[in-house]
Amino acid sequence: MKPARVLLLVIALAHLVIPAVMLARSDTLRGEVAAQHPDFGSSELDASVQVALTSATVFHLLLAVLCVFLAWKLDGTRRWAVRLTVVSQALSIVFSLVSWSTSAMFHAVIPVVVLLQLAVIVLVLRARRT
Q1: What is the pLDDT of residues 67-77, one digit of tens each?
Q2: Which of 37, 82, 105, 116 has its CA 20 to 30 A from that of 66?
């Protein structure tokens, strides 16, 4: 289980970095929102960017905490931790696909994180069978 636990910590770190990058590149985010919604005025663009930044920060902080918690609890003896790890990482992959379709900002990172999440799922399920 140790490799899966380490990968969960790496994934947690990625979840912490994503909102920081979004904040640092908020002008790019604003441009993407403007391209998707050309009818938005300045105040609507500002509000949309703020909603995106706030929701991404909350969402990714929760996922980071969950990954750290699972890395701590995942020792092979807790079936619930195995199940929660598989479900949470599978859902995170789905969420990544949604992010992929809505913004090009993380197209370089998403495939790497998805591969890490798939590796966690495989490692956890393989360890459970042995």
Answers
A1: 999 999 998 77
A2: 105
